[in-house]
Design goal:
elongated, 5 strands, three-stranded antiparallel β-sheet, 174 residues, alpha+beta, single chain, 6 helices
Length: 174
C-alpha cells in the first residue's frame, strides 16, 4: 500500500494565491524541510488570510480551497452506532502509531472477556465476521477510541459531542 499520504494546509489572501501555493507544494512534495516550514508558518491563523486550502500529497493530489470567515466554527464529534463497521476498516489506520497502540490497549482489555484478537477482526474481518454482533460492537468502539486518541494528539477539542448506541462508548472516552 505504500506510505501514508501527507496532508498539508495553507492559507492566503486570495483563492488564486492558495491554489498557486498548493501547486508549488506539490512540486516539492518530497522536500521535508520545505513542508515542515509550510506547516510551521500555517500552524496558527494569519490575519487577513480568508482563503484556506489543503492538499493530500500523492501522485494525483487531492486539493480543495475555500473561503472562510473569522468567526470560529464549532467542532462537533459524532460517534456512530451499530452498522458503521466494514471489512478492513482499520487496515490503513494501523500504520499510525497512536492508532495502533490504542487498538492494542483495547485488545488487551478485551482478551480476558473472550475477544481473542481485536486487531485481526478490524484489519482482516469479512462481512461474515461482522454478522457476529460482539465483533461489530467491539470493533466500532475500539475504532472510535483510537480515532479519538488521534484527535487528542493533534489538539482537536470538541465543542459538542454526540453518540448513539455503541457510539456512546467512544463519546465517553473523550
Amino acid at each position: 500500500p505504500g506510505p501514508i499520504p501527507r496532508v498539508i494546509g495553507v492559507s492566503g489572501r486570495t483563492e488564486d494565491s492558495v491554489k498557486k501555493f498548493l501547486s508549488k507544494i506539490q512540486q516539492h512534495k518530497n522536500d521535508e524541510e520545505f513542508l515542515a516550514l509550510v506547516d510551521q508558518v500555517h500552524a496558527k491563523n494569519i490575519n487577513g488570510h480568508f482563503y484556506r486550502g489543503y492538499s493530500v500529497l500523492k501522485d494525483e493530489p487531492i486539493t480543495e480551497v475555500s473561503m472562510v470567515s473569522n468567526d470560529p466554527r464549532p467542532i462537533c464529534f459524532v460517534f456512530s452506532g451499530m452498522g458503521s463497521q466494514w471489512s478492513g476498516m482499520a487496515k490503513d489506520l494501523m500504520k499510525l502509531d497512536v492508532f495502533r497502540q490504542s487498538i492494542e490497549r483495547c485488545s488487551a482489555a478485551l482478551k480476558p472477556h473472550g475477544v481473542k484478537n481485536l486487531e485481526d477482526i478490524i484489519v482482516n474481518g469479512t462481512a461474515e465476521t461482522f454478522d457476529n454482533i460482539l465483533n461489530s460492537f467491539v470493533s466500532i468502539a475500539a475504532m472510535q477510541i483510537a480515532l479519538t486518541d488521534i484527535l487528542k494528539i493533534v489538539g482537536l477539542e470538541p465543542d459538542h459531542i454526540v453518540g448513539h448506541s455503541v457510539g456512546e462508548v467512544g463519546m465517553y472516552h473523550f
